[in-house]
Design a protein that fits this description.
heterodimer, A: 281 residues, alpha/beta, Rossmann fold, 2 domains, three-stranded antiparallel β-sheet, B: 188 residues, two-stranded antiparallel sheet
Chain lengths: 281, 188
């Protein structure tokens, strides 16, 4: 633990983190002020340790004056843990409960919010391809972190992860082999262009940006957990506004709209897998 | 001291250890009990319902935004880190594993230590890796009270041994003394 913020100074930590987030917002426009405090504290303390800076005010000083250093810090605060077909049961339920609805549309607009490095977007594209729907889809995959979007566009991933992904894919009800969708290159795999043909990767910040399209389906999994309640409500409002009537919202397996302001604006399609439908009225 | 929460961390042997401790805490146990148990990706629903059969406290999985309240034992959901926010509500994180663990004991203990400070009791029980030692040290540094199960009587001594070495806890006690100690501390 950081020795500066001991028993005596511990109250200062939260005060200084508040100032840091305010400074970052004013200088760079990225707004982390309503992120979970416990999450931010953890990331800030870890950044202090790595960079050998003693206090959060010292960190703020450096962040304000060094844009490259800020890029690294931005990465600290963004959520970059993802995998293909994460939570396979979710994808099974999606096939069973959401795909039949999507089939009724002639053209399907999808927003994958907080797509990070793209693994879950390609999982979705594979599933849509296998259901014969991908050609009818337009997928907007967004994140606030340009660095992860570059990785997502490249569609190149570590080969060491593939075994796990294959297993997830099978458990998720995949009808082919995952290797049908990628080419191996040395220690990496590259997913085929046919999957990304219908995907647009774009910069969008859920905290500071507004509605950009009307869509039939939104996936935003394991993003809301990092937000404080008011911000969760704000983002759920943004999703509600973006969805067509009876549009579908998919959240992470431990994320809930219960107790939120939008609880009665959605009905559950699969409560356990957190798949919801926008109410007509 | 007016304690406000107990955090418990355990891995291998933890099912049995918790089956010993939790039923001894009566329904008037005055503070929430928050547990990280390493159990891999398996769900813990059946263990939770088993405990509910033998505990006076209500045992459940902690949910996002849920306030930590007395009368409850909360378990971290499998595959998520569990944290406590400044408003004493839970938050979850899908961040990378720490000490090969998600949920990680360190993540829960550190976040709870910053929020509860000296009003926190941290407990490390049997386990086969080093998770929890750093977290318990933070609990102690921020003024909380620390207990570690005597490694000689733990099914897996590695976790308590790391915690003893790194955190130098206030109490090192045998498993059957843990619940009486928690009751004694919180009733003062």
């Amino acid at each position: 633990m950081n020795s500066y913020y001991d028993d005596q100074n511990s109250r200062l930590l939260d005060i200084e983190i508040g100032l840091l987030l305010e400074g970052v917002y004013q200088k760079y426009g990225y707004d982390f002020r309503e992120y979970s405090k416990a999450h931010v504290r953890r990331r800030v303390l870890s950044r202090l340790k790595i960079s050998g800076i003693e206090t959060v005010i010292g960190l703020l000083d450096r962040l304000l004056r060094d844009a490259d250093f800020f890029r690294g810090f931005l990465n600290d605060l963004s959520i970059n843990v993802t995998e293909m077909f994460r939570d396979p049961e979710f994808y099974r339920s999606f096939r069973e409960n959401v795909i039949p609805k999507l089939r009724t549309y002639t053209f399907i607009k999808i927003w994958h919010a907080g797509c990070s490095t793209g693994e879950e977007v390609y999982s979705l594209a594979i599933l849509l391809q296998e259901e014969g729907l991908l050609d009818r889809c337009q997928v907007y995959a967004t994140d606030f972190n340009g660095k992860v979007l570059d990785i997502a566009r490249e569609a190149v991933y570590q080969k060491s992860e593939i075994e796990q992904y294959e297993q997830n894919y099978r458990q998720a009800g995949g009808t082919r082999k995952l290797s049908d969708y990628y080419q191996s290159l040395y220690g990496s795999v590259m997913f085929k262009k046919e999957l990304s043909a219908r995907i647009v990767f774009a910069d969008h910040n859920l905290v500071t940006d507004s509605v950009f399209a009307e869509v039939n389906l939104i996936l935003c999994r394991n993003v809301l957990i990092y937000f404080e309640k008011d911000l969760q409500n704000k983002v759920l409002g943004l999703f509600h506004e973006s969805l067509t009537p009876a549009g579908v919202l998919c959240l992470g397996s431990k994320e809930s709209i219960r107790f939120s302001k939008y609880e009665d604006r959605f009905t559950a399609i699969d409560e356990k897998q957190r798949i919801f439908k926008k109410r007509l009225i | 001291m007016n304690y406000q929460a107990v955090v418990i961390g355990t891995s291998f042997g933890g099912l049995d250890a918790l089956r010993t401790i939790l039923p001894q805490l009566g329904e008037s146990f005055p503070v929430p009990v928050i547990v990280v148990l390493h159990i891999g990706d398996r769900n813990i629903d059946s263990f939770i319902s088993h405990l509910n059969g033998s505990c006076s406290l209500t045992v459940k999985e902690a949910e996002m935004n849920e306030p930590a309240r007395p009368g409850f034992v909360y378990f971290a959901p499998p595959n998520y880190h569990l944290l406590i926010e400044n408003n004493f509500c839970f938050s979850l994180s899908a961040d990378e594993k720490l000490n090969f663990s998600r949920p990680s004991i360190d993540v829960l203990f550190e976040s709870a230590a910053w929020v509860y400070k000296q009003a926190l009791i941290g407990v490390i029980l049997t386990g086969a890796n080093s998770d929890g030692a750093d977290g318990l040290k933070v609990v102690k540094q921020l003024g909380g009270t620390t207990l570690v199960q005597n490694p000689c009587t733990a099914l897996a001594p590695v976790m308590p041994r790391f915690a003893l070495t790194l955190a130098r806890p206030d109490f090192r006690i045998n498993l059957e003394r843990v619940a009486p100690k928690l009751i004694e501390l919180t009733s003062q």
